[in-house]
Structures are given as C-alpha cells and as structure tokens.
User: Which sequence fits this backbone?
C-alpha cells in the first residue's frame, strides 16, 4: 500500500484560499468578543468607550432633526460633496481654533467618523511593509487599520508625560528611515489616559520634522479636559505641511452620526477626497447638516462643559475606588481628561487569562494585549469611566479587585500563568472602541 497523503485542513469557510493576504491578521477586538456579555444589565462594564449621550438635550436635538427634514429635507436626503458640506467645514475650522489651529475649510475633508479618516490617510501613504510609528499602547482601531494595509507597527514608549522623545529618536534610527508617519493621540490618550506635555509637543514635532516623518495627530478628546482650557495642538505648532490632524464629533456631540474630519496639506487633501469618493462616494448629507444646525443653534460649548463635569465626577469615582480597593502592586494612570484609566496588574498576573474570572464576577474590562501590535500588555488593562454612573463604577472596581485578589491567591499557590495562551493578533475595532 502506498503512503497515505496528509489530509488538507478542514474549514467551515468555503472562501478560504480566495481572500487577499491582508485579511490573514484580522480578528475581532477584545470588546467585540465581550460585547454580548458586557451589555447584560447584571455586568458592570468598564470596557466600552461609549460617550454618555443621555446627557445631551435630546428634546432639542430631536426638534432640530425634525425641523431639518421639514425645512431642508430634499437637500438633507440628497447626495453631497465628496469633500463634505462647505458650511460644516467652516464650522470645523472654528472648532479647531479652540486649540490654536488656523485652517482653511478648503483643506478640511469630512469623513464618516475619524475611523474613516485613519483609513484614508493610511491608504494613501502606506504600501505593504511600510513602517508606522505608534505609541505603546495605541488605539486598537488604528492598529487594525495599519494591519489591514499590511503596514508594520513600531511602538514607541510612553510615560506619565506621554510619548518619550528619546524613544522616538531611537525608533526612527532603528527603522532606518522607513517610517511613513508617527501616529499619536496627544490628548487624554486612548487607552493610556495620559497626555503629551506641552514641552514635549514641540520636541516631538521637531524630531519628526528633522527626520522627514509626517505626524498624524488624532484628537477626539482634546476639548474634554478637566483642569483648564484645551492645550495647543501639535498642528498649531507647525509652520509647515507636516502634520495631518484628525477630529471627530463623536465625543463632543454624538457618535451615532459618524461625522469626523481630516485637516491636511492641500495636495494630500485632494488625494483624500479621491480615496473617500472611491469608498463612500460622499459622507452622509443628513448627518452633516444635523451637525451644522447643532453647532449653529445650540450652546454646544456649554454642552461640552456638561460632559466634562460628568466625566470628571466619574473619573474621580474610579480613581477613589482603585485607591481604596485594588491590591498592592496594582498601578494606574491619572487622566486629566477623556475616558480611560490604564491599569497595570501586580507582577505575575495576565489580564487576558484573568478575563473569564472577571466575567463570572460580572465585571468587564479590556485586556491590554489588544492595544499592542507585538504581544505586549499582558499585565495591563483599560478601564473606562465614561458611561457607568459613579456608584456602578465603584461596584465594578470592587468586583474587579476581588478578581485580582483571587488571581493573586492562585499565583501564590500554583505559580505564574506563563505559557497560558492569549492572542496577540492585531484586532479590528468594535463600534464602542473609538
């Protein structure tokens, strides 16, 4: 009898072998896998980054939407410009001016949320195997986008003052000039919760300018600081066309409208418009006009102040609970705005391995490994305080602290969890990860 041939692998997907190579690394995000469980009312979710839209003046917004259809429905329900509504672009320039950015509406491209802006910028700049520099950790939605275009991510270390300039210099040297851009969230970082200090902003910009590297400044949280006026944006410090700025109304108005934007150099802007037209033809006209009417008729800056007060109270509740309840050896960042606290577990624990025990204890978080492209972050987790009420936050931290205590007991009895698997694949974002 002849030698048996090895059996081909079995798959339930009839299209295996037909997909593009860039799909190989795609996997669902940590939150997407958790969402069905974390959304149950008995589970305290410290996982998702959902803005607290219940604080909006919903009666006024509802009337605004009704009046828009009643008075300009034919326009609002029609196709629009691929670059976005001109009046909206003018108002976006006024919003950016609060952070010192001087811009022309001609250089603004409206996008379907800032996630599409990330996709467009990566599409026009990155070929397979190009290098993108990104903070460690970094926004999971950005990592998924970079992976989808087969770019290589080189992480750059952060500390309490944000991205470390010397680590950036080292990363540039090690990549040998292959980096296309630095991706950074300088304000109230997702997931790390820290902000790039004022002095470091100038230094980081100078380093990138010297190396000829574009800065991709992603700034969804810049107006949501707790301790004073907005910090001057990196884009506002640049006298040349070497910073592309991304913004969004998802955190200051409503994520369900999916309205974001890119401010880019003129030549880059034209390519962004062409790339956007190829993917969505034009951003939704109804949503854009709704944002225009909201900015023109509502006290939107007063509403941002309401959000800031709510998130400050919830931040305080989380920090107080962490201080009172978490076991020794646990550390965390102290955000001065935004949505997130980045927590590091005691030595020997693995946030991904611990996750099933946390779900059993009816508390959800996001393991840190999802925010790295290279498998780092096993001791880390992202805790979100933006959505739950303060009492729920305290209860969630109480449950989480009990889980950590139990894991420490197991560690003392059986030793570390090294060798137990947790996926390091680059993930695509769930809707509430932004």
Assistant:
């Amino acid at each position: 009898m002849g030698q048996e041939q090895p059996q081909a692998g079995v798959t339930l997907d009839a299209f295996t072998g037909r997909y593009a190579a860039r799909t190989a690394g795609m996997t669902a995000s940590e939150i997407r896998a958790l969402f069905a469980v974390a959304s149950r009312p008995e589970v305290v979710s410290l996982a998702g980054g959902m803005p607290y839209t219940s604080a909006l003046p919903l009666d006024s917004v509802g009337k605004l939407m009704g009046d828009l259809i009643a008075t300009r429905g034919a326009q609002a329900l029609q196709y629009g410009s691929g670059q976005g509504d001109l009046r909206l672009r003018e108002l976006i320039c006024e919003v950016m001016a609060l952070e010192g950015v001087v811009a022309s509406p001609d250089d603004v491209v409206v996008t379907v949320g800032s996630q599409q802006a990330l996709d467009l910028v990566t599409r026009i700049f990155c070929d397979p195997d190009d290098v993108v520099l990104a903070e460690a950790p970094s926004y999971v939605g950005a990592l998924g986008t970079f992976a989808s275009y087969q770019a290589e991510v080189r992480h750059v270390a952060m500390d309490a003052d944000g991205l470390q300039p010397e680590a950036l210099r080292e990363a540039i040297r090690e990549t040998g000039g292959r980096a296309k851009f630095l991706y950074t969230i300088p304000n109230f970082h997702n997931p790390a919760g820290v902000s790039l200090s004022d002095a470091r902003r100038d230094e980081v910009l100078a380093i990138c300018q010297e190396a000829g590297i574009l800065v991709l400044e992603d700034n969804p949280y810049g107006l949501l600081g707790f301790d004073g006026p907005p910090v001057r944006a990196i884009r506002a410090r640049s006298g040349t066309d070497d910073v592309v700025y991304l913004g969004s109304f998802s955190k200051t108005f409503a994520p369900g409208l999916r309205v974001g934007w890119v401010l880019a150099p003129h030549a880059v802007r034209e390519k962004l418009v062409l790339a956007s037209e190829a993917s969505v033809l034009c951003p939704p006209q109804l949503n854009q006009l709704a944002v225009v009417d909201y900015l023109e008729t509502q006290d939107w800056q007063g509403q941002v102040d309401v959000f800031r007060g709510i998130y400050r109270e919830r931040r305080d509740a989380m920090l107080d609970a962490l201080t009172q309840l978490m076991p020794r050896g646990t550390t965390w960042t102290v955000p001065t705005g935004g949505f997130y606290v980045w927590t590091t577990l005691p030595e020997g624990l693995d946030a991904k391995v611990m996750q099933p025990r946390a779900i059993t204890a009816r508390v959800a978080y996001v393991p840190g490994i999802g925010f790295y492209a290279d498998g780092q972050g096993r001791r880390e987790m992202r805790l979100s305080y933006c959505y739950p009420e303060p009492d729920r936050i305290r209860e969630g931290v109480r449950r989480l602290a009990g889980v950590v205590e139990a894991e420490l007991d197991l560690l003392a009895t059986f030793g570390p969890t090294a060798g137990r698997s947790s996926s390091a694949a680059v993930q695509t974002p769930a809707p509430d990860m932004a």
